[in-house]
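REQUEST FORM: STRUCTURE PREDICTION
Request ID: SP-0412
Submitted by: Lab K.M.
Chain count: 1
Length (residues): 306
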Amino acid sequence: MTTNSRQSKFTNIPPNERLPQWIKPSIGKASQIEKVQRLIKGYNLHTICEEGRCPNRGECYASGTATFLLGGSICTRSCSFCQVNKGQSPHPLDEHEPERIAKAVQILNLRYVVITSVARDDLPDHGASLFPKTIAAIRQVIPDIAIEVLTPDFWGGYKNNKEAVNAQQARLKTVLDAKPICFNHNLETVKRLQSEVRRGATYQRSLDLLKTARNLAPDIPTKSGLMLGLGEHSEEIIKTLRDLRSVDCQQITLGQYLRPSLAHIPVQHYWRPQDFDKFAEIAKNFGFKKVTSGPLVRSSYHASNT
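STATUS: Completed
RESULT:
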């Protein structure tokens, strides 16, 4: 069984504020959007751009960037903010998915590719091997393409013990050994709101993953992202930025959370564009090497801008 815009405890909760006028999705060329959507459907592929209803997908398609979703379209986690379908029985892995993604990348003449995945807690390696297989397939047709990865935590339902930590690190190493240009893992929200927003993940576990990535592959930059508007306070955002820098995270994205449907967690507050500018300045002062901050910013927005 899968779920999407299902009934949930959030269904009858109205928004706290009206959608402000500064929330205006960017517009790309209609022809390019149609081309990408037609190709994705024809090759039976998934992108987080479409599955997550990203407001910037038109602009990104037009600029030669896309984010492919590995492991199918059903996630084994039930995060309260995410539009991707949820279910405990995802479809079997498609062994030819990497080659089809590579072909789509070639046809679209993409210059920068982000690959992410649904959480596959049902698999022995939690889907870690999907990343190097796809990276290898893409590089076989376009050797010099830039590939960024955005991964789940590769943890699942294990207890917090040494065996679980070692298993997670082995999965992470599998991804890093494929030499992506950037390793991204999103913290999503402040510590206080983690259990409500990120089901199955924890704040410290995500920080530890980013720290381990730096230790295992110091030549690969790490990146994380925060959604604002879930009820966090300014002080909590600043504390989260500090925590990310404490594990030497080099890049950060900050964007406004937008409720995908009435079944998802409501928006508590719309931060103003000048607030995003303020947090960007703070992040830069903390030492982040790349900061992308704005109401419609998402994890892969302007990812190719270095």
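NOTES: Residues 1-7 have pLDDT under 50 and may be disordered.
Reviewed by: T.R.
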